[in-house]
Specification:
With 250 residues, the protein is mostly helical. The protein contains 8 helices and no strands.
Length: 250
């Protein structure tokens, strides 16, 4: 800068104003070019940093979706088995007590329920923060934004079934079936309750409208849940494929 000042001073003192103006214009142009180069370098650095963030987002989403695919595969098998169990339970309605084997009785009171636990941490992190601005693919952004709604539909249906099991089916079973049946037969500590406790009444349970309606409702809702799970698996796989393709193109 000192060199530039000395050059300008000499030109002014020499009276060469035209040369001075050209020199000043060239100096301004040089400064502008320098600013533009610095801006371009900074912009390229920002693009590079954003790409790194974008890749990390896609990678975390892809791994989460792969996990969900495995979870959904297991869930679909489980829902199929639950439907078969519920259908079998209804076939015991109207049978006499001497036709009910121990296996049949175990099936009648089957109320096992477990949550599917789909992962959505990475999805929520993207949808609920400013991470969306780092994503370049608009079609992929739209798919990512809509996917949590599909998980909510799945979870809401699962909560319906959970409510049937816990608030309708379990109470009616406990009304007619003694939990003492589940205690070990040969344990001395349970001899008293086994001998004098209120006995189970499987026939009355099977005749109960509350039991029948609860089983049928759970059967119908599980069938809906199965279809939702299959549909969600298709959408999960499509989104995972798109993410993998986007990662390979970056």
């Amino acid at each position: 800068m000192k060199v530039f000042r000395n050059s300008r001073r000499k030109l002014i003192l020499s009276g060469k104003f035209k040369t001075y103006l050209l020199y000043a214009l060239g100096e301004i142009l040089l400064i502008v070019v320098g600013i533009l180069i610095a801006w371009k370098i900074n912009n390229l650095n920002e693009i590079r940093k954003n790409k790194i963030v974008e890749v990390k987002i896609y990678e975390s989403l892809y791994e989460e979706l792969r996990t969900n695919l495995n979870v959904l595969d297991s869930a679909i098998v489980s829902f199929d088995n639950n439907i078969l169990t519920l259908q079998s339970s209804l076939r015991f309605v109207g049978l006499p007590d001497n036709k009910l084997t121990q296996d049949a009785k175990d099936l009648i009171v089957q109320i096992k329920f477990s949550n599917t636990n789909l992962r959505d941490d990475a999805l929520n992190s993207v949808n609920n923060t400013n991470k969306f601005e780092f994503l370049e693919n608009d079609l992929l952004k739209a798919s990512i934004a809509s996917y949590p709604k599909e998980i909510n539909i799945f979870n809401n249906q699962e909560n319906k079934i959970k409510n049937i099991v816990e608030n309708r089916l379990k109470p009616v079973i406990e009304k007619y079936i003694s939990l003492a049946d589940m205690l070990p037969e040969d344990a001395k500590n349970y001899k008293q309750i086994k001998t004098f406790g209120a006995p189970s009444n499987y026939i009355a349970l099977l005749k109960s409208r509350d039991y029948q309606n609860s089983i049928i409702d759970r059967l119908l809702q599980t069938d809906i849940h199965l279809n939702i799970a299959k549909n969600l698996r298709i959408k999960t796989r499509k989104l995972a494929v798109r993410l993998r393709q986007e990662l390979s193109s970056i």
